[in-house]
Automatic annotation (TrEMBL), chain A:
Homodimer. Heterodimer; two heterodimers of COQ7:COQ9 come together on the same side of the lipid pseudo-bilayer and form a curved tetramer with a hydrophobic surface suitable for membrane interaction. These two tetramers assemble into a soluble octamer with a pseudo-bilayer of lipids captured within. Interacts with COQ7; this interaction allows ubiquinone (CoQ) isoprene intermediates presentation to COQ7 and facilitates the COQ7-mediated hydroxylase step. InterPro entries: COQ9_C, COQ9_HTH, Ubiq_biosynth_COQ9. Its main location: mitochondrion. Residues 230-300 form the COQ9 C-terminal domain. Pathway: Cofactor biosynthesis; ubiquinone biosynthesis. This is Ubiquinone biosynthesis protein. Pfam families: COQ9, COQ9_N. Belongs to the COQ9 family. GO terms for molecular function: lipid binding. One of its GO terms (biological process) is ubiquinone biosynthetic process. Membrane-associated protein that warps the membrane surface to access and bind aromatic isoprenes with high specificity, including ubiquinone (CoQ) isoprene intermediates and presents them directly to Coq7, therefore facilitating the Coq7-mediated hydroxylase step. Participates in the biosynthesis of coenzyme Q, also named ubiquinone, an essential lipid-soluble electron transporter for aerobic cellular respiration.
TrEMBL record, chain B:
Belongs to the COQ7 family. GO terms for cellular component: extrinsic component of mitochondrial inner membrane; nucleus. This is 5-demethoxyubiquinone hydroxylase, mitochondrial. HAMAP family: COQ7. Binds 2 iron ions per subunit. Component of a multi-subunit COQ enzyme complex, composed of at least COQ3, COQ4, COQ5, COQ6, COQ7 and COQ9. Interacts with ADCK4 and COQ6. Interacts with COQ9. Its EC number is 1.14.99.60. The lineage of its organism: Eukaryota, Metazoa, Chordata, Craniata, Vertebrata. The keyword Mitochondrion applies. Fe cation 2 binds at residues 95, 147, 183, 186. InterPro entries: Ferritin-like_SF, Ubq_synth_Coq7. It is found in: Mitochondrion inner membrane.
Amino acid sequence: MDIKNSPLSLDMAALIRGLKAGRALRGLRSVAVQSTLSPQCNNVRRGFHRAALLRLASDSKSDTSVPPPSYHEVHTAGESSSSSAQGESSEGAQSNTSFQDQSGEHGEDYETEEQLQARILTAALEFVPQYGWTVETIAAGAETLGLSSASTGMFNNGAGDLVLHFIAQCNAQLAETLAEQNNLVQLGQAESKKTAEFLKDAVEMRLRMLIPYIDSWPQAMSILLLPHNIPDSLKHLSTLVDDIWYYAGDRSTDVNWYTRRAALTGIYNTTELVMVQDSSPDFEETWAFLDNRIKDVVNMANTAKQVQATGEAVVQGLMGAAITLKNLTGMNQRR
Amino acid sequence: MHRFFRPRRMLRDAKQPLLWTAGQLCLNHKPVVACVRGYIVLPPTNDEEEKAMLHRMMRVDHAGEYGANQIYAGQMAVLGQTQISPLIQEMWDQEKQHLSKFNEILAENRVRPTLLLPLWNIAGFALGAGSALLGKEGAMACTVAVEESISEHYNSQIRTLMEKDPEKYTKLLQLIKEFRDDEMEHHDTGLEHDAESVPGYQLMKAIIQAGCKAAIYVSERL
């Protein structure tokens, strides 16, 4: 479990690791070739991959008993904050040549490009308070993993990739937590919450994930508003809102499906905006704002129901009056 | 690079069989809602394209049954006090059953309903009421046209599923075949009750069927 850097002497172990890395490299190159980039970028990226993996091979350690990051771990990052991920991934980088069976259809010898990118981005999150949501952050993250800072060339979208990765990670974390809570409720070990309370808690939980990065979050929001990022950020937002409503118990299959999600999207977005300029201790004002917005929506829903009921009653009254009139004038007889 | 993740995608290995027993919490943390019959209709899948295809199919079927429900409601609103009303009511009840089954499937599988449901609500009611104003024959002609369109649509779905993988989609195929048989029965009932004797039958049928095709096309996408 010794993690010190070994000197670059070519002993047998290092040779074997080099061979393994070479095999991994071939595999990775085939993955890289299949991606859809321009030819020059492809060549550049191939160079980066070679450079990255050669560095990995030379720095690799022989016996770490740290389990290599499985696909599961990398992509859901359920429990990893950025710092623990960084610590784990630097160890994991040393032994990424063997994966558990759960790593999917790509075999055991290497990780896919996507997994590598995910690891780099997760590691980069630690540097966001320092460098903001920029390419420098990604470079710093790559360096933590022992890769060259030029591996930022892998990310066509630059800072956009980092922000979207962070959002996806947060959403996945939230969905996992909500699923666990749902399990407990289903098993009878916890009480189910009322809808308003559930929504409030879910949105608060999700927004609290922004707290470590709240100072630079306006920059991230503006990155998400760039035209080429809008489709992806909207998809993430709709996934988030759909998950929250699903676990809140919404099973509607009519137009309510849309109105509820639209309402929650509005609530989430406005609360996020309030949060970035909130300076109260522990963001109390934000949660109060959230509470009020949810109350508004619940009120509106109740009012809508009342209006509908009243409307139906009025219609019935009118029909009754019409039939009475027809009876009085003798028009209602069967011919 | 970033992924749109939900917990059910955590284990992506297609080679690992997904444990799926009704009533058990499956691997993807989604609570399994035991439906009335106790089995799952849509096969669980991790393939994005397949999921999109199945969702699209369920979405348009749900919209179809919703529209049919409204058509019969419109017909009953006009012809509710006549001799034909028990027949229309019976057909309407079967459509209600179909609709509730699709509601169940949509809720279980988190399928988005089509955005145009309010439109089908109004259009279906208007079509049913409008055709019923032409009398009992008009209502029957409308039924014949619509049920023929729906049967054709279900048949093409059955064909698609059979081409892909009949064993995997057994339950789904069973369901669609059952519904298709019901719709054919309605179609035949309509013919039995003088649908063809309405003036302008061919024209009416053509217009209604064109409308149905357009509705199906749009509901699949929107």
